[in-house]
Amino acid sequence: MPRLARVLIANRGEIAVRIIRSLRALDLTSIAIFSEPDRAALHVLLADEAYPIGPGPSRESYLHLERVIETALWVKADAIHPGYGFFAENPTFARACAEAGLTFIGPRAETIAGLGDKLAARAAAARVGVPVIPGSESAVESLDAARAVARRIGFPLMLKAVAGGGGKGMRVAADDAALATAWPLASGEARAAFGDDRLYVERAIARPRHVEAQILADAHGRVAFLGERECSVQRRHQKLLEETPSPALDASTRAALGESACRVAREVGYLNAGTVEFIVDEDGRFYFLEVNTRLQVEHPVTEMVTGVDLVAEQIAIASGAPLSFGDSPPAPRGAAMEARIIAEDPLRDFMPSAGRIERVRFPQGPGVRNDAGVYRGYEVPVFYDSLLSKLVAWGADREQARHRLLGALREFVLEGVHQNIAFHRWLLTHPEFIAGRLSTRFIEEHFTAAALDAGPEATEVALLAAALHAREERLRVTLPQANGSSVRSAWRWSDRRRQPGRVRR
Amino acid sequence: MTSGGPPRAASGTRAETAMRFWVTLEGRDTEVELHVDQGRLWLEFEGRRLEADFHRLPDGEVYSLLVGGRSHEVRVSAGDGALEVTIEGARFPVEVRHPLEKVLLSVKRAADPSAGETVTAPMPGLIVALRVQPGDRVEAGQAVAVVEAMKMQNELSARYGGVVSEVLVAERASVAAGEVLLRIRPVAS
Q1: Which of A56, A492, A496, B153 lies most in the core, judged by the most C-beta atoms within 10 Å?
Q2: What is the band of B107 on the pLDDT scale with cuts at 50, 70, 90?
Q3: ipTM confidence
Q4: Which residues 32-71 of chain B have a CB within 8 Å of chain A?
């Protein structure tokens, strides 16, 4: 059983910070790597050791395979935790770790590779009797072949990339003409994104929910289901808010979904933490979608209701230890919700927003957890993910969790970059959200930029505060030059307190 | 709450004259008068009178604003030609100007040399004097009317000049903001 005393984190941002915290709690040495613009990043400040890895662009630093492995060897790391993103689902990296004698904290390389093929994953699910969305069993070779499948399963249908993920190479076709149009677009996108233009066909589910099962599998043959997460609130396949339990599942459906996830995991000989994703249709039926062979961004909601430290379990599993709870995973208690606080401008089509964090005050309070990767004065770099923080609230039930999250969002001060705190406040108070009626189309069906318009009170407060500030600063407006060509530009702020050569009293 | 308020120990009263600002934000504009009365800060705007307390936090640009009892945390930073006020993450560009500018701006807006110009009341007030009558020739910059508002007499002048074609108000009349007082027709030079 390898003793993993020194763990290198091949990641950055909030997830690197999150992993450092578990390493601390386990009394293990945390080793950070950082790119040039990340010299002052929080994960560097918090880690026991930190080593430079290259320039800003990911390809030259966090995604530079040889450099990461070399650094890990040079600093005598025992293991590498990949976090999510970067190398987390890269079988080549997992293999390179093994070849270098480093323990990769995650599934086996061949499992990652096998489940990366969406059709193979689907076939594995179907083999063990887990429902899959009706569609083609293999890649469809041509538009005509796709049409043949369409005749069998009917429209609307979906074209998906075999190598897919993140919505790339994914198209919905409502009828035959739309299919003909979508075919070249989807295969072109798939080729560009994955270097693999193979497509398969699935029936499109009208208003799907995205529900996923958290599993843990140890090297002793145990596979545990730790509850589900509903991640239906998405924009362009990017999850924004996740919660557990899913409001869509009753107890028997939940048990069936968890059992299905475990069957798939056993079928592929899964090891370590993983997430089995399902689509739930409007009638509450679930269908296998894919397996994410990594720690998910939204894993904290599961931790909040189970009390299990998933990162600690990952490390235990990687070192050959059994699951901490043996054969009986803790029963989830209460409900938890996570809001992803992202540097983006909801009023400008959610464009990412980089810049300096000018002011921060993190929320606190009962049941509140904030996994952040930023601090005051920190410059959000342009190179990486725009996730700033994950704000999580636990409650005895969904309503308490929702209220606590809403309260925490009201407390949350994060200025200097645009962020989506106001968006989350809108979301959490929307009647359909409160009722738990979610689907991946929630935002397109309900959100308009006008929803974030400031109320009359905020506008009034802004006007008053500006006048009060002018008084406070002794700002004076001088009269313009006579016949000034532009009245507005002729006016000038004059700040007595800042004028040089002027005596302050 | 429009008056009174909870009792408060009067702080050292410093003599201060009322300050008045014209504040605009995305089309909404108002005038705010600030004055200290027996150690209390009062805001007067849009016909309301509210007690306020504006306390700068150690954070620098950040204030705690209590207005009519409501607690707000606001950040005010200098932007380009305007102040940027941040409330609960939302940013508001607010222009703070001298009330007189409103007068000037309204005169400017009313002015259009080709179509002639319209002189409008920059704010609600009283016509104190009309200096012209229909048919009068006026030069650019010549005073045409005096409006009393905000306890100040504001002289309104022709921007481009021409011939007064119409006078729509009489002396001692009360006028609303934006109300057209007179029109001036350009003359071919």
Answers
A1: A56
A2: low
A3: 0.75
A4: 32, 34, 43, 45, 52, 54, 56, 59, 62-63, 65, 67, 70
